[in-house]
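Q:
Got a chain?
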Amino acid sequence: MINILVVEDDVKLNHITCTYLANSGYAAKGCLNPQEAYDLMYTNRYSLIISDIMMPKIDGFEFAETVRGLDKDIPILFMSARDDLAAKQKGFRLGIDDYMVKPIDLDELILRVTALLRRANIATEQKLVLGSLTMDAAALTAMIDDVEIPVTVREFNVLYKLLSYPNQAFSRAQLMDEFWGMESQTSLRAVDIYITKIRTKFASCTDFKIMTVHGIGYKAVLA
């Protein structure tokens, strides 16, 4: 069971959020302030934290900064009435992973929680498993039904990136900056060539498709 900690001083919203998470298959524990959260974290292990910002005594920013100092990997999702850019910028600078503005859509919350947990698992295990496909970042291997697909390091990294963030579009420039680095003479067309190679090599895998986002770049869509 995946344990999620909900830090929210609105008792009703806290209860509703925990109940919805529980109905979605998660073990959710609610607390009304960061001090209670610290006590719970001392004796329990959590896979994700959902936190409000505007709380008395210790606000969400201070709480997130403390948590991130103790655990650099645990996903933190802010759920706040603050919709200003300054609050979002501060939160992400402190190390949060996602931000939702109240009133929240609980179905969307579940989608975001699922995505955050998936990325956290990929980062921790250094493995991405998607149906018949297994990608091992430590060994730089890609397997379809236990048959290894020969890939270059760059092909592996591009595909691993896209599949780690399904449905998120990445521009050619973003992919170029991350995986080609200082090779400034390389044209953005190189990204298209690599995508074509990846599509060809993984054509037998029906668990995902790499879609072209016209005018932007590419995204992975899960089947």
The chain has a mean pLDDT of 92.
